[in-house]
């Protein structure tokens, strides 16, 4: 990247590693220095919570607002009914309107932690594309919008090509998705003066479509910017762990587990993640990334504290660090550990340790729990667990017990 930006926003994007590509670096940079600009990212409501994989682009919206511009979080109440086929090997399951609305309510809780939805000139807007998509007249839409799209060109986009090359079916419903997303950009430009769409680099084709459509219909100059698809240094997709997705809603993943995810960052990723997921100055991120040996662990704790404080608040970050200290360094039982409350009905006359390990969420199946025990990876109250046939009754659970899978994953089990 040889371009030297004038605007604060583009400077942040380049310095902190947020920028993968842009349709017109100079044009966008000049627009950003000429006054408050409006930009959006779209989120389909496919789950009740956003996850860590969304966090990079949420930080992009936060920096956009911090540098004086106006972010739009566009909820895909309309497009979720179709499903984005980008780089998927199969069609998404279709959700009903009630589930979509419930998912949007869950996702809104996260955005409010990072953005200010107020009446300021650069106050964020929360919009839903069902507002203009639900009422579309199909014939008018085909005539006014559909005529601007070349099927030959749509077939050349990598997201579509990858499906067709593998001879996997792509339904007409999904093929329409990119037209609807392009139409979102047109409507946001027409209604709110939005000049920039941002998203992951897998959205490049969809973003370019929206720019072309808006230029053809409204003759307006608008822009697209993408962020790199983030993988960890060992090649894994960001946001997945042994236990599943790293959710951003506290009721789906505890602040402690969220903190622990960042504390377990690989050494090679610390500097990059500090720049992307925290607001620490770039020089400080570089200094922390250069720490070697056991000192890098101090940088990981700073990373975990900073990221957790942004999402769950400074108190939650402090409590998570205190729990980790208690559990890892003193071998104690931290108050903040993920806890499973066992009902009297579940306990009955007794319950097997294998079932408890599964119920606590440390593993997903009894088979996995048995393997963990056989390979000496399980502990009960910090003592090695060797008997996969162990049964526990009410007296054994009179006080909470601590279960561990390996060195880093722990849970409490107590009677409810």
UniProtKB/TrEMBL annotation:
Main location, first listed in the record: cytoplasm
Residues annotated for ATP binding in this entry: 240
Superkingdom to which the source organism belongs: Bacteria
UniProt keyword Chloroplast present: no
EC number: 6.1.1.1
KW Ligase (keyword) present: yes
Swiss-Prot/TrEMBL keywords: Aminoacyl-tRNA synthetase, ATP-binding, Cytoplasm, Ligase, Nucleotide-binding, Protein biosynthesis, RNA-binding
UniProt-listed GO biological process terms: tyrosyl-tRNA aminoacylation
Short sequence motif named 'HIGH' region, residue ranges: 45-54
Catalytic activity of the protein: tRNA(Tyr) + L-tyrosine + ATP = L-tyrosyl-tRNA(Tyr) + AMP + diphosphate + H(+)
Cellular compartments per GO CC: cytosol
Binding site for L-tyrosine: 40, 177, 181
One Pfam family matching this protein: tRNA-synt_1b
Localisation: Cytoplasm
Quaternary structure, from the entry: Homodimer.
Family statement: Belongs to the class-I aminoacyl-tRNA synthetase family. TyrS type 1 subfamily.
Annotated function: Catalyzes the attachment of tyrosine to tRNA(Tyr) in a two-step reaction: tyrosine is first activated by ATP to form Tyr-AMP and then transferred to the acceptor end of tRNA(Tyr).
UniProt xrefs under HAMAP family: Tyr_tRNA_synth_type1
Name of the featured protein: Tyrosine--tRNA ligase
Organism encoding this protein: Roseovarius albus
């Amino acid at each position: 990247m040889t371009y030297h930006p004038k605007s604060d926003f583009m400077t942040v994007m380049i310095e902190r590693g947020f920028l993968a590509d842009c349709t017109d670096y100079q044009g966008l940079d000049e627009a950003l220095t000429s006054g408050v600009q409006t930009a959006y990212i779209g989120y389909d409501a496919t789950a009740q919570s956003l996850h860590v994989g969304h966090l990079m682009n949420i930080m992009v919206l936060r920096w956009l607002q911090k540098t004086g511009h106006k972010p739009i979080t566009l909820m895909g109440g309309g497009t979720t009914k179709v499903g984005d086929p980008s780089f998927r090997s199969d069609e998404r399951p279709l959700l009903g309107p009630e589930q979509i609305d419930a998912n949007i309510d869950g996702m809104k809780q996260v955005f409010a932690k990072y953005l200010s939805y107020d009446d300021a000139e650069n106050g964020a807007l929360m919009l839903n594309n069902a507002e203009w998509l639900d009422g579309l007249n199909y014939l008018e839409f085909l005539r006014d919008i559909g005529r601007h799209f070349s099927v030959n060109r749509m077939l050349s986009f990598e997201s579509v090509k990858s499906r067709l090359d593998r001879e996997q079916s792509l339904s007409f419903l999904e093929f329409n998705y990119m037209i609807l997303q392009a139409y979102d950009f047109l409507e946001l430009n027409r209604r709110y003066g939005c000049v920039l769409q941002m998203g992951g680099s897998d959205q490049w084709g969809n973003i370019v479509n929206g720019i072309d459509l808006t230029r053809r219909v409204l003759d307006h100059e608008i822009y697209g910017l993408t962020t790199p698809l983030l993988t960890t240094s060992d090649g894994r997709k960001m946001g997945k762990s042994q236990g599943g997705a790293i959710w951003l809603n506290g009721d789906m993943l505890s602040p402690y587990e969220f903190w622990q995810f960042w504390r377990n960052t690989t050494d090679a990723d610390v500097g990059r993640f500090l720049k992307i997921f925290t607001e620490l100055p770039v020089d400080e991120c570089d200094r922390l990334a250069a720490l070697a040996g056991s000192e890098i662990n101090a940088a990981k704790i700073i990373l975990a504290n900073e990221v957790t404080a942004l999402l769950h608040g400074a108190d939650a970050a402090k409590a998570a660090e205190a729990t980790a200290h208690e559990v890892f360094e003193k071998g104690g039982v931290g108050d903040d550990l993920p806890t499973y409350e066992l009902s009297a009905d579940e306990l009955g006359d007794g319950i097997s340790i294998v079932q408890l390990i599964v119920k606590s969420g440390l593993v997903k199946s009894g088979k996995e729990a048995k393997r963990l025990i056989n390979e000496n990876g399980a502990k009960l109250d910090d003592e090695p667990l060797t008997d996969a046939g162990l049964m526990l009754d009410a007296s054994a659970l009179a006080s909470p017990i601590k279960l561990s899978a390996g060195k880093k994953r722990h849970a409490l089990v107590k009677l409810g």
